[in-house]
């Protein structure tokens, strides 16, 4: 199938109406809206008035689902967004996140540093997020609670940027990659099941989540691979893949393999019930 035909089919499918929903006859907009609160990302994004931003619809819901924890804590956070473009998303982060949050943007386009942002806590750095020298020079001692990669979307950039910035994510923080669909596109160095694509890179990390269980058997794994898997295992708590957006959660505190938490009394041998009351419960996630 060629690109144009594929695009025509996608456009037709996009126009589909949900069989159970009501639509406005003139605008074709759905009449029933999701009941989000005023401070939700969905509502803040929808009501933003200043600089321009463009994000896919599903991202708004994903941000609500994952960032709500920072709103509940109501403490200022540090967010980094790679890819500023016309500046709107930085302003929206400032409107959404707890008061006093620091919003940092990186872009290769010098214009991004010249916009008049509606928030004095917004700061923009000009350079490439996948350039090691630029990153070390400007971000050596910086840490973030949330990192969003909405930069070039070229596979090698996405991977390099992750390797440079994930170590700068605080424990309990979130690393989010937008527009992962580009990893299937040839002009972004992507392809279907292509080894060097960014989606395959992230899929491979799933094995690291289970490193401690892999270790039980004598698989032929090199020492360097063991070190790599173990490091990722102690840091990466989850990878949640949605349509084109990936949310990676950093453990709050994981320094050993997981253990079972035993509690209550086991009566399977009535003559000798076993009581468990000393299980240690620790905080692992944010
Ligand atoms: C999709 S736009 C960002 C949109 C914006 N985040 C929003 O939500 O409205 C991508 C931006 O990434 C920038 N960019 C491209 N390559 C980059 C790189 N290597 N490092 C940082 N920014 C990059 C582009 O100049 C462009 O402004």
Description:
The chain is an alpha/beta fold and 286 residues long. It is 32% helix and 17% strand. The chain has 9 helices and 9 strands. It has helices at 3-14, 41-46, 57-73, 88-96, 132-139, 155-165, 198-209, 211-214, 223-235; strands at 78-82, 102-107, 122-126, 144-149, 169-177, 236-241, 246-250, 264-266, 274-276. The strands form 2 sheets. The chain has a 7-stranded mixed β-sheet, sandwiched between helices. Helix 7 packs across helix 9. The longest helix has 17 residues, at 57-73. The model has no long low-confidence stretch (mean pLDDT 93).
Features:
two-stranded antiparallel ribbon; alpha/beta; globular; 32% helix; 286 residues; 7-stranded mixed beta sheet; binds S-adenosylmethionine
List the helices and strands and how they pair.
Layout: H1 3-14, H2 41-46, H3 57-73, E1 78-82, H4 88-96, E2 102-107, E3 122-126, H5 132-139, E4 144-149, H6 155-165, E5 169-177, H7 198-209, H8 211-214, H9 223-235, E6 236-241, E7 246-250, E8 264-266, E9 274-276
Parallel strand pairs: 1-2, 1-4, 2-3, 4-5
Antiparallel strand pairs: 5-7, 6-7, 8-9
Helix pairs in contact: 7-9
The structure holds S-adenosylmethionine.
């Amino acid at each position: 199938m060629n690109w144009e035909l594929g695009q025509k089919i996608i456009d037709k499918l996009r126009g589909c109406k949900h069989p159970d929903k009501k639509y406005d006859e003139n605008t074709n907009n759905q009449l029933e809206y999701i009941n989000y609160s005023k401070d939700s990302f969905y509502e803040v994004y929808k009501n933003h008035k200043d600089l321009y931003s463009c994000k896919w619809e599903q991202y708004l819901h994903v941000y609500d689902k994952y960032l709500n924890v920072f709103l509940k804590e109501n403490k200022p956070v540090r967010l980094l967004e790679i890819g500023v473009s016309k500046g709107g998303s930085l302003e929206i982060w400032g409107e959404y996140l707890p008061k006093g949050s620091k919003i940092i943007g990186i872009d290769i386009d010098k214009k991004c540093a010249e916009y008049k942002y509606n928030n004095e806590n917004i700061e923009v750095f000009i350079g490439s997020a996948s350039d090691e020298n630029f990153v070390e020079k400007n971000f050596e001692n910086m840490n973030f609670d949330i990192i969003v990669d909405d930069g070039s979307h070229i596979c090698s950039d996405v991977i390099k940027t992750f390797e440079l910035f994930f170590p700068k994510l605080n424990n309990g923080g979130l690393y989010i990659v937008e527009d992962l669909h580009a990893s299937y596109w040839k002009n972004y160095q992507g392809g279907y099941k292509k080894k060097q694509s960014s989606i395959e890179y992230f899929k491979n990390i799933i094995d690291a989540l289970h490193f401690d269980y892999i270790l039980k058997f004598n698989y032929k794994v090199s020492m360097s691979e063991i070190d790599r898997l173990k490091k990722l295992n102690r840091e990466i708590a989850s990878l949640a893949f949605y349509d084109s957006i990936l949310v990676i959660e950093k453990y709050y505190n994981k320094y050993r393999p997981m253990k079972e938490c035993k509690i209550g009394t086991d009566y399977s041998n009535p003559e000798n019930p076993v009581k468990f009351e000393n299980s240690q419960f620790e905080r692992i996630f944010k």
